[in-house]
Amino acid sequence: MFNNGIVNYENYNNVEKNLKNVLNLANTSQNAKAVEEEIYYNTAKNVGRSLNVTDYNSLSEKIMELGIGQIVITNMSDEKVVFRLYDCFTCSDMENIGKPVCYFEAGILAGAVSTISKQDMDAVEVRCNALGDSYCEFDVTKASGTKKSFNDDSDGEKTDINMLYLTINSLKLAKSKNQIQSQSQRSTQDNKKLNDALENALEADNFNQNIIDSIPNYLAVIDSSGMVVRINKKYQEFLSSAFKKDTSIISLAWESKYLEVLATGAPAIWQQQISGKEHIIFESPILEAKAVLRQVIPVESDFIKLLLDKISVLEEQIDSKKKAGETEHATLHDPKVMVASAEMIDLVNYIKKVAKTDASILMRGESGTGKTMFAEVVHQESPRSHQPFIYIDCTTIPKNFFETELFGYTPGAFTGANKKGKIGKLEMAQGGTVFLDEIAEIPIEIQSKLLRFLQEKKFEKMGAVTTQQVDTRVIAATSQNLEAMIGAGLFRKDLYYRLNVINIVLPPLRERSQEIPGLAERILLQISQETGAAVKKIEAAGLQELMNYSWPGNIRELENLIKRLTFLVDDPVISRAAIEKELNTAESLNVFAGVAKNEIKENEKDLIVRVLQNCRDNKSAAAAKLGITRQTLYNKIKKYNITF
């Protein structure tokens, strides 16, 4: 059975039969292959259209939900969109067969992009695991009209769904068949090598008797007629009688399954009492020699004891991992990052997965939720971890300095410029990662240059006449509503799509209160290391108070509160009463700050509106009267959404 969230079906036999009937419509095997590829492609294209994706970010999420793989957009223009697909459903486990095979994935992307772009698109696979590549790559371009949609001749929705069942089942069966064939071929090759070695040994006069005598188990070789043709010294001693070559197992009164082993080619194992003691008997085929290798192992032997001890150790390790729960799967390179809630464990596992790619990441979340910390986690978990991680706080850069901060400038680029020029932050992060915190603060005129860098990894320094190319991954973060800013014309839509290939949303602390005890412990330990004082504890009732608080300032507010408590409380244990007192103070300040902030905001907005009206919307005159620069006035007009 296969269930991908869209379809649910169970009968593989009917599916295979139906597929054969469809393919038999073709006259030749070559035509049959073409029909098969068209079925996969066109049916998937119809499915892609029905996914109801509205942008490339939702497409990326939908592809991961379907289990088809993980997409990264590597190029986007008016002519085409280039996708890379990692962990491809069809070909991720395939060896090089010299041709691309992912018609189904190509169809899904073609249909989905057709919906997004509102025009008919086609996809061609240019790289594939089946070509020896480590990922698949698809060029999606405007449809030429040569490909025929499968639905053109369909009888409606029922036929389309039936073909969807047929296609995905067939793909799954084909993939399983390829895996089984590959594994079978490897196993056959290994067994052949072993059998050849044993055959050569059997044909040799001395049969390397010294080797088989050195084996501690009782060892013998039985031929196809039931005669014991070889036996080791240990087995002879166990029989307590002189052994003659070519003795029948019947005369030795052995219970053997050699005929069954030779007939099936599969080994046999059972337990038997011999001379009043339990033994394990293992008989395995020597295929080309048409013989059976027989091993007899006492249950009380050192070998069995060692095996049982090893099993016990493994069982203890499994039990330990079960008790540890899902947290085991959230282990990160950074020991400071600890998560406890199911939501954060899932998020960390997702971060570990996407960190392995070079896709741009957009982190969303309230101020203080840990966006910077998790951006560093992405870098540490990525193949770029040994290269620079450059942090850029976009809120601290004056508007006129964004270009030089990001891209740098050449000597003499402008009056007052450093004579040696300046290296931009993007170039400083060569080979590594740059983190743009509060990306919404970047002026819109600089956003176009950043977009080009994300698309081509190229830029020109201020004052330069040559283009530089830098291999730097970009992670961006914001606490603002970028979608609303796009609607207001304050943020480029194409830059948003380029950044938002992978979307990571960090929940506020009030929604993951299970994290608070671990965070508090980590903060207390950090304070102890910084001050050299003994590590303080928080009593259980106090921890509960912390977990019940709403934390409008998130983790940053928690850190500040605990730091204050460590300085105010002299006792080694921070009491509930001390915590309640600080939380009450914090709530009062938050209420006052919220009211004051709103009052200041409204008063300033009213003042700007009145001055603009008096100056008849002359921005320069209004800025002069307000005692601010013209650019600051523009920023405040945007901030307060002042319209005229």
Give a description of the structure:
InterPro entries: AAA+_ATPase, AAA_lid_NorR, Homeodomain-like_sf, HTH_Fis, NO_sig/Golgi_transp_ligand-bd, P-loop_NTPase, Sigma_54_int, Sigma_54_int_dom_ATP-bd_1. Residues 337-567 form the Sigma-54 factor interaction domain. With 644 residues, the protein is of the alpha+beta class. The chain folds into four domains: 25-147, Trafficking protein particle complex subunit 3 (Muramoyl-pentapeptide Carboxypeptidase, domain 2, 2-Layer Sandwich); 162-319, 2-Layer Sandwich (Beta-Lactamase); 342-505, P-loop containing nucleotide triphosphate hydrolases (Rossmann fold, 3-Layer(aba) Sandwich); 513-602, Helicase, Ruva Protein, domain 3. The chain contains 22 helices and 23 strands. The strands form seven sheets. It has a six-stranded antiparallel β-sheet with strand order 9-8-7-12-11-10. The radius of gyration is 35 Å and the shape is elongated. The two termini are 62 Å apart. Mean pLDDT is 76; it is low at 1-29, 147-163, 323-330 and 591-600.
Task: Give the helix/strand layout.
Layout: E1 2-3, E2 8-9, H1 12-23, H2 29-49, H3 56-66, E3 70-76, E4 80-86, H4 103-117, E5 121-127, E6 136-142, H5 157-203, H6 209-213, E7 218-223, E8 227-231, H7 233-239, E9 247-248, H8 258-264, E10 268-274, E11 277-286, E12 291-298, H9 302-324, H10 342-355, E13 361-364, H11 371-381, E14 389-393, H12 402-407, E15 408-409, E16 422-423, H13 425-428, E17 433-437, H14 444-456, E18 458-459, E19 468-469, E20 473-478, H15 482-487, H16 493-499, E21 502-505, H17 516-531, E22 537-538, H18 540-548, H19 554-568, E23 573-574, H20 576-614, H21 619-626, H22 630-639
Parallel strand pairs: 13-20, 13-21, 14-17, 17-20, 22-23
Antiparallel strand pairs: 1-2, 3-4, 4-6, 5-6, 7-8, 7-12, 8-9, 10-11, 11-12, 15-16, 18-19
Keywords: ATP-binding, DNA-binding, Nucleotide-binding, Transcription, Transcription regulation
Pfam family, one: Sigma54_activat
Domain Sigma-54 factor interaction: 337-567
